[in-house]
Amino acid sequence: MIREKGFDGVGVDQLSKAAGLTSGSFYKHFDTKAQVLLEVAKAGIDRVAARIRRLRSSPTLDPVGGWVNDFASLHTSSTHLQETGRGCNLPALTPEIVRADGETKEAYQESVRRAVDAMLEEAPLEGEADGRARALAMLALLAGGASMARAVADERLSAEIAESVRRACVTIAATPLSETPRSGIVWTPSDF
Fold first, then answer.
1. Do 100 and 37 contact (CB within 8 A), yes or no?
2. Which of 36, 150, 173, 188 could anchor a disulfide with 68, C-beta 3.0 to 4.6 Å?
3. CA–CA gap between residue 20 and residue 113 (Å, rounded)
4. Minimal CA–CA distance to 118: which of 75, 79, 158, 67?
């Protein structure tokens, strides 16, 4: 429910009812609603890494992009984009985790770390000097891209965003990142 409706979009009464509890018994299990977000983050720690390993171990439908294309295709599919509540934690929970406490952020961080580790276990990222940077870029692109594709009303634009993200992930996986210095620009609130 939190993935689907957001942390502020679901109350204790709704969470209790969905879990088959009364609101009073909810507090026997959780001290606060924020603790539920922590448990959701903890429950998802190994999900992304397990998904990567499953895709790598199954016969891929894609002989060119391999598991990376399968992984990116899965995350940018129209079905996944429509299933916010049952899809990946990264795009669904990232905006919620930004405002969460340190323990919840650490659980989310562990999920990202384990996903990156799984991505580095085999080609095309295994043994690459910039493999970790490419893995992080792909995860960030998939999470942000799925969020953007879900946020627009135009289905064609949503599909265009998703396809651009999928293609960029395959490119990132296959191509070393060039060393480019950051620009000297300094952010100010007036920039946004």
1. yes
2. 173
3. 33
4. 67
**CB-based burial label for 104 (10 Å; 0-12, 13-18, 19+):** buried
Query: Amino acid letter at 38?
Result: L
Per DSSP, helices labelled H in the chain are 2-5, 12-19, 23-29, 33-43, 47-57, 66-75, 78-82, 89-98, 102-119, 131-151, 155-174
Under DSSP, is residue 160 helix (H, G, I), strand (E, B) or coil?
Answer: helix
The residue written with tokens 């007036």 in the block is 190
Convert the pLDDT of each residue in 51-109 to its tens digit: 999 998 887 666 667 899 999 999 999 999 999 888 898 999 999 999 999 999 999 99
Task: Please give the Cα distance from 192 to 188 (Å, whole number).
Answer: 8
pTM confidence score: 0.89
pLDDT single digits (tens) 145-155: 999 999 999 99
Q: Which domains does the chain have, with CATH numbers?
A: 40-175 (1.10.357.10)
